[in-house]
Amino acid sequence: MTDMALEPARAAAEPAFDRARALSAFKLGDRTFYWVTRVSALFVLIILGGIILSLIIGAWPAIRTYGFDFLFTQRWAPSLQPTPILGALGPIYGTIVPSLIAMAIAIPVGLGIAIFLTELCPMPLRQPIAVAIELLAGIPSIIYGMWGFFVLGPFLADHFEPAIVSAFENVPILNTIFQGPASNLSLFNASLVLSIMILPFITAISRDVFATVPPVLKEAAYGVGCTTWEVVRNVVLPYTRVGVIGGVMLALGRALGETMAVTFIIGNSFKISGSLFAPGTTISAAIASEFAESDGLHQSALILLGLLLFVLTFCVLTAARLMLRRLERKAGA
Amino acid sequence: MYLNKFLGLALVAGLTGAASVATAADITGAGATFPFPIYSKWADAYKKETGNGLNYQSIGSGAGIKQIQAKTVTFGATDAPLKKEDLDKSGLAQWPMVMGAIVPVVNIDGITPGELVLVGKTLAATYLGNVKKCDGDAVKRLNPKVTLPGTAITVVRRSDGSGTTFNFTDYLAKASSDWQSKIGSGQAVEWPVGVGARGNDGVAGNVAQTKNSIGYVEYAYAKQNKLTYTGMVNKAGKHVQPTIEAFQAAAANADWAHSPGYYQILTDQPGDKSWPITAATFILMYKEPADKAAATEALKFFGWSYDKGGKMAEELDYIPMPTSVVGLVKKTWADEIKSK
Fold first, then answer.
1. pLDDT tens digit string along B101-131?
2. Which member of A145, A181, A200, B253 has the lowest number of beta carbons within 10 Å of its beta carbon?
3. Which residue from B157, B143, B153, B158 is spatially nearest to B108, judged by alpha carbons?
4. Beta carbons of A158 and B192 less than 8 Å apart
């Protein structure tokens, strides 16, 4: 009884002082936390702004010399006197085309793997396949480049390409897309390697979002007699659309910016030949190959290429955001 | 009070001591990748003998020139020499350090090293895309006895800017007016055909992997990778094989004494025995170096390399500078570089 009486008495002895101090300590802690996080967030913006600014400053001489022609010129003659003629059309073509082909291969395969893993795969196999896919993502890109160079390239050049070239020799259009001497290093080789590199992104993200579909929905669909295909088509995919597209866009971003592996196997040719079996170059491969030995306008043009890649990736991400927003609105309505 | 003074003195002594150790130990240089193997071999042997090391970044000729102009290194190294007026503009001295040769390499079934013979014009035509097949007329005419397949030929060249490309395209420009007017020479040019590979090893690897292909590499890479090199017809119209003797013959014919700033490109040299695509690699240093001690150390290293490095260079398939040229260079050092 005495104990109970003592407790409030002790609290009352120094109440005002204690509470104010405790509160202000909380306040200070909170404010510090607020500023630390805010500065961190601002830091990202400052770095981003700094990168854009330094790219623009570095690219300025090239922008002033070539202007918009830079985008539509196919020639790349850095040692031409007195003014080099430099144009980004070749690298832009070489960046976009293999990325699109890689997406065309990796999206169906990646979604297929994810659907198999979440809907059809026997339990004991699930974990090993999932881990294998994630390991694919962990392989450094130079390893993919070496594999493309030493294994895939010679195979394509010795067996696959000659067969395709002779098969489509008399078919219009296709005989332009598939033509020329068999080459180890080609847009096609780069596309295949890129598709393997981006596969884990698509698969891992799709698998995660497929797992979020409420079992009740799927069971209901199975209950009314849907096949697995119908469940995937009408329940799983519509439910997870946003997540899947996010994964695909992430993969596309990776494909566009991939440097090391592609530099190894694309052949680094600035000419646009129209044939997938011909060498090409990407923006990042051109920069990686030539930057160290470049100077003056040549270097500035390479920086401008970097700026273009930045803009290109930014556009892809923006497009993805807009697409997602529209889908969400549609789903909401 | 005394204690303070004493401490201060000790601190100053310690600092200067540390500084002098640092300058004695570090000769810093950057530039061309082509001489990197021999520079590092020299540096190893030099360090064993004197205790002084070399820190050489093989970042490419262009980058080497930039580094020396930014004064971040004691010397720069480049395969493409600077012209006299450019040297004077930035107050740099230039001299040749060691020489090497570039050889065309092919991968055609049944062809052995040295069997095929090429002439500069044909090589240029191939790199222009005018010779499309292995048994193109121009090639056949030069090699009537060799059986060549009728398959399309893959041209392999460098994708990165390089001193090797500079010397190779310089030769093509001298050999073919067509190449001169359409492409010209440079560290990176507008290649009309072919696949680009990174570095000498990249080109070597590509030629080794691709059937019916042609490329160009430093001789050492062709030898180490056991590639099929070709013979060439030189300026005198004679058929030569890539041998140390042929490289030395080309080097001996160069008139170093009368080239201001040692600006000499060794391609297409006269002489019956000269290999047509020979190249020297150069060192750049400031005539009035900011760090005189470091410059002295660097010159000591280069002098040592000239005197004792010849055999090591030959082991790695480089060609040491002739003694007469070394004499000239040493005189240039004494006259021009104020390192003391």
1. 999 999 998 888 988 889 999 999 999 988 8
2. B253
3. B153
4. no
| Cβ atoms B106, B207 nearer than 8 A | yes
| B213-218 and B92-107 strand pairing | antiparallel
Cβ contact B209–A77 (<8 Å):
no
- Residue from the list A81, A181, A268 with its beta carbon closest to the beta carbon of B159: A268
Measure CB to CB from residue A79 to each of B60, B184, B206 and give the nearest one: B184
Q: How far off is chain A from B177, nearest CA to CA, in Å? A: 16
Tens of pLDDT, residue by residue over A226-253, are 999 999 999 999 888 888 988 898 899 8
Q: Residue A12's pLDDT band (boundaries 50, 70, 90)?
A: low
How many residues does this entry show for chain B? 340
| 10-residue stretch averages of pLDDT, chain B, 340 residues long | 46 42 67 87 91 86 86 91 89 92 92 89 90 79 82 86 88 92 86 86 87 90 89 90 88 82 87 90 91 89 92 89 88 83
Q: Are A74 and A270 in contact (CB under 8 A)?
A: yes
**What ipTM does the predicted assembly reach?**
0.70
What is the β-pairing status of strands A76-77 and A85-86? antiparallel
Is the CB of A267 less than 8 angstroms away from the CB of B151? no
Cβ <8 Å between A181 and B154: yes
Chains A, B: CB contacts within 8 A come to 106
Angle A296-332/A237-257 helices, nearest 10 degrees?
Answer: 180
pLDDT (0 to 100) of residue B3 = 45
Q: A25: which 2 tokens?
A: 């300590």
Q: What φ, ψ does residue B56 adopt, rounded to 5°?
A: -110, 120
Facing residues of B94 across strands?
B284
